[in-house]
TrEMBL record:
This is DC-UbP/UBTD2 N-terminal domain-containing protein. Residues 1-28 are annotated as: Disordered. Transmembrane segments: none annotated. It comes from Tetracentron sinense (Spur-leaf). Residues 16-113 form the DC-UbP/UBTD2 N-terminal domain. Pfam families: UBD.
């Protein structure tokens, strides 16, 4: 027999808990304005890399949210997290989504604008 709770646990085994990405350093110091521009360019072109626009939108929302909200977003969108820091994810159809570190957090060598 089995109980309803046992099947729920099996489904949860595939769900990775996301975490904040490790600190990283850009090849040269950049300003917040430059970082925002890089992020905007990535998100504007991301759907052209393949996959579903809805998943890209969910990943953007998750990347810009705190960890708790980000976890809820990826769970509700059906995103399969391969790397706990969200750098590699899949949708339910198997399409791969790769996020660069610069959309997930700031570099250690971020400098003030101006």
């Amino acid at each position: 027999m089995g109980c309803a709770g046992s099947s729920q646990t099996k489904g949860d085994e595939n769900a990775k808990k996301i975490r904040k990405p490790k600190p990283w350093k850009h090849s040269q110091p950049i300003t917040m304005t430059q970082l925002r521009q890089m992020r905007d360019e990535f998100w504007d072109t991301a759907p052209h890399y393949g996959g579903q626009k809805e998943i890209w939108d969910a990943l953007r929302a998750a990347a810009e949210a705190d960890i708790t909200l980000a976890q809820a977003i990826v769970d509700s969108a059906g995103v399969i997290v391969q790397s706990a820091d969200l750098t590699t994810c899949y949708d339910e159809r198997g399409a791969k989504y790769e996020l660069p570190k610069y959309v997930l957090n700031e570099p250690t060598n971020l400098i003030q604008d101006g």
